[in-house]
Amino acid sequence: MSKYVDTDPQQDHVVIEYGTTDRDKNKESYAEMWHRWVYEDYYRTYMLPMEKYGIKIHHDDVTEAWERITKKNYVHKVGQFFAVGWPVNFWRIEAQTEKDFEWFEHKYPGWYAEFGDFWKWYAKLSKPGQQVITFNPDVGYVYPHRCWSCLVPCLIREDMVVDEIDGQLHTFAHEIDRWTAVEAFADEYQGRPTPAMGRFSGKREWETLYDGVDLADAIVDLNFVRSDGKTLIPQPHLRFDDKDMWTLDHVRGNTLGSPLNALRAMDEQTRKAHLADYAKGFTINPCH
Q1: Separation of alpha carbons 271 and 280, rounded Å
Q2: Contact 77, 71 (CB under 8 A)
Q3: Superfamily of domain 4-145+206-251
């Protein structure tokens, strides 16, 4: 049974972990599947033998990818971000329950201490009339910056870096993302012109597009409203009773903001302090 409605196949890792009610502890977690299919089958069976043919294998990248899942909790931070952004996402995700908590703690020891209270908040604030979790200061969640290269949020906050392109500040999820946009996609690379190399340009961040816009107006602009003209397509639950459905009136009065525009508007000292705080992460407040 699924408790997640998804229209984006790129987010399979979140669906595997957070979109199921099957909490059989013998079932593989995403991390266990990744280790079996990517590390054992792809890396060790396919990639490593290539070295004898002179192909350079970046072993440190494989290690980093594994640690992002097992030590930096990337998959769980993506699930958390999806839940926070429910009003402007074309999917619905249900809150996790005590049964889910037990399974996650079994598969990822320490999970409950970092994520348990967040999902309690998400369940509590899923009822129409509650303050939208995205804007609720009681929760303690800090909305993330977005990567200019890959366009995903910078969720492993200690890895985020900042650099300039054409005199404009940009945020990047990782040094590799910064290198891609600032160096590899520059007009020249190591002294050689790169006319055929791609470029990142245009309006790439939706937060910047809707900076200063009321959440209800943004949802209308995104066409995420049902045929009755008021009920939202996105919902913070999978209940289907009309009384449980959020409408435009429930979300109106919340103003969207652009973390990137805010960063650019800071003076150097304030920006430096902000980035240091961002790298430290945040702590979800207890939900009673």
Answers
A1: 14
A2: no
A3: Ribonucleotide Reductase, subunit A (1.10.620.20)
Q: Specify the pTM.
A: 0.90
Would you say 279 and 158 are in contact if contact means Cβ atoms under 8 Å apart?
A: yes
Place of tokens 């619905």: 92
Q: Are strands 168-172 and 161-165 parallel, antiparallel or unpaired?
A: antiparallel
pLDDT in tens, 8-41: 334 667 888 998 899 999 999 999 999 999 999 9
Closest CA to 73 of 49, 104, 35: 104
The pair of structure tokens assigned to 230 is 């008021």
> Which residues on adjacent β-strands are paired with residue 164?
169
Amino acid in position 233: I
3-state SS assignment for residue 258: coil
Q: What is the pLDDT of residues 109-141, one digit of tens each?
A: 999 999 999 999 999 999 999 999 999 999 999
